[in-house]
Task: structure prediction
Amino acid sequence: MKGPRPVNLPGIRARLRLAAALTLLPLLALTACGSGDTDGTAVAGAQASPAPTDDPVTAVRKVDSAAALLPAAVRKAGTLRVGSSIGFPPGAYYPNGTDKAPAGQDIDLADAVAKVLGVKLERQDASFETILPALGSGKYDFGTGNFGVTGDRLKTIDFVTYINDGQGFAVKKGNTELTSKVTDLTRLCGLTIGTGAGTTFEATLTAQKGVCAKAGKKPYDVKVYSENAATLAALQQGRIDVIMSTINGLRYQAAQPASQTTFLGEFHRLDVGFAFKKGSPLTKAFQAAVNELIKDGTYGRILKKWGTSASAIDTSRINPPEHA
Result:
C-alpha cells in the first residue's frame, strides 16, 4: 500500500517520554560487572545510547527443517506480523529515544528466529497491555514484550519460551526504608509501588494485597503506568517508593555507572516467551527455531550481548506450567 505514512502520535509521545526518563538515568557504557552473569563477564552493551555494535543475528541462516513446520500459507507469504512492546533495555528500547529501529534482546531473538524460519517480520509497536488481547483478534501473528508464562495467561495464550526472567524490585538510590532483598510483600506495607499495566507484577500485587491487613499493617498502594518510562520518572520524582518490574530490566538499570536506582533482588522467577493466540499453528516452528539458535550458539551470543546470560534456558518449551 502506497501513500504517506500516517503519523503515529502515541508512538512519538512514548519515545519522547522514554528519552526524558533516560535523562534521569544517564546510561553510560558499563565497564564493570553487575549483570548477574554467571561467567563473571561484564555486562555487554549496558547502555541506552548507542546500542551495542556487535550483531550475532547477521550470521543466522534459514534452517529448512524448522521452516517446514510453518503453515504453507505463511511460507508462501514469507512474512509474520509481530506486536512489539518497546520499553527499556535490555529487552527492547529505542536508542536515544529516537524513532530509529528498536534494539534489545527481544528484538535480536525475534529477528534471529525469523531468519531461521526464512520469513520477514512486520513489526508494529504496541503498548504492553494491548498485545495479548490483540492476538486473539488476529491483529498480530505473535507478540513480544517479556511476557511471563502464568497459569491465567495459559488459558487464552500459547507461549514458546526463550528466556527465564521474572519479578523484582528497585528503589531510588539512597532509599532508607528498603535496603535489602524483598522476599515477602509485607515489607512493602505502607509504601506506594509503581508497576506496569497488564503485567504479572500488577496481577501479583493485586492478588496479594490482603497480606498487609493479615499482618496488622497499613496496606501498600499500587500505581499502574502504561509505560516503563513513566514508572521510572515517578520513582525519581518521589511519587512512588518502589518499582516492581522485570529482574533483568531493573538489574540492568541499577548496573549503570550513573544509575539512580538500587536493585533489591529477585522476587519470583518466570519463564518468558513469544506469545500466540491459543491453538496457533506457529508454536512448533518457533520452538524449533529457538532450539536451533541455542544449539548453534547464536542464542548465547545474543544474551551475552545484552548482559542476560544468567537467564538462559537449556531448551525452548511450549506452554510450560508457571513456576511455583
In short: The two ends are 48 Å apart (CA to CA). The chain has eleven helices and eight strands. The chain has two domains: 34-165+270-311, 166-269.
